[in-house]
Amino acid sequence: MRLPTALLLIFFLPSSAALAQGDTRITFLGRQLEKGRDPRARSQAALVLGQTEDPEAVTPLCGGLKDPSELVRAAVAKGLGALLEPKGLDCLQSVQGEADATVQAAVAESIK
């Protein structure tokens, strides 16, 4: 009876580790987006968050739409568009009146 238990552990441990690693990655990237000093680094974090395919990335990305840098806000809009999450669409729609033309274009493209 020990063999099936050992097999179950072999199958479930790697997936648990992958989930923990994914969560850590989202947390790290979210922190970079929120607190990074360089707008280019924050922009890169936003783009990578958008490529994670993780719904948890919506929260830090939506917060990034308030970043003072137009570069970052445009990257956040692109990241939200890449995620294809309904909550992300809500965030994008809330900033459709963005003053900066580059950000406005990124928002419109991501909403499509």
What do these coordinates show?
With 112 residues, the chain is mostly helical. 79% of the residues lie in helices and 0% in strands. It is built from six helices and no strands. It has helices spanning 2-35, 39-51, 58-64, 70-83, 86-94, 101-111. It is globular, with a radius of gyration of 17 Å.
User: Main beta sheet: strand number and arrangement?
Assistant: none
Helical stretch count?
Answer: 6
- Which structural class is indicated by helix and strand composition? mainly alpha
Unreliable runs:
5-20
Strand content: under 5%
Return Rg in Å. 17 Å
Report, as a whole number of angstroms, the end-to-end distance: 55 Å
Q: List the secondary-structure elements in sequence, H or E.
A: HHHHHH
Average pLDDT across residues? 85
Short synopsis of the structure:
With 112 residues, this protein is an all-alpha fold.
Write the layout of secondary structure elements.
Blueprint: H1 2-35, H2 39-51, H3 58-64, H4 70-83, H5 86-94, H6 101-111
Helix pairs in contact: 1-2, 1-3, 2-4, 3-4, 3-5, 4-5, 4-6
Summary keywords:
112 residues; mainly alpha; globular
